Task: structure prediction
Amino acid sequence: MATELFSTYSYLLDRTARKVKQYAQRRFNAENYDITVDQWLIIKNLNNTNDLNQSQLADITGKDHPTFTRIIDLLCKKGLTERKIQPNDRRCFLIHLTNLGKQRVLEWSPKMAEIRMKAWQNLTEKDYKNLKRILDTIYMNLDEHEKFINEL
Result:
């Protein structure tokens, strides 16, 4: 395939990702959820696997450490998460989803699912599988190239 056809893929990915995030944030605000998309991503992941250390959770959510720290600070102020000292390494904190955080995840999850599904309206499971395969391939191509460069 010609290089010109591939030249817009990053623009399309970025444009779509921004639109999904903006749509979700507008819906959160309309529902008076006192949370951002990035904060939701963190508490949703903690609900699946609670008590992760900061580095693990930052990696899972794709956040750089300074951004992640600011988000956790806000979630702690809201009472949705708390930092716990890790028993075997007092320099490292575990991020814990509080009972209020668990309650909010339970309360907000149906609306969050509805918001996510809006983007998939008029698309099939096959469309999703194709998109996932393509995105995974792009990710792996770049990941392998980064590993190769780092080995030099």
Observations:
- Helices lie at 3-6, 9-30, 37-48, 54-61, 65-77, 99-119, 125-151.
- The chain has a mean pLDDT of 90.
- The chain has two domains: 31-121, 123-152.
- Residues 25 and 36 are 6 Å apart (CA to CA).
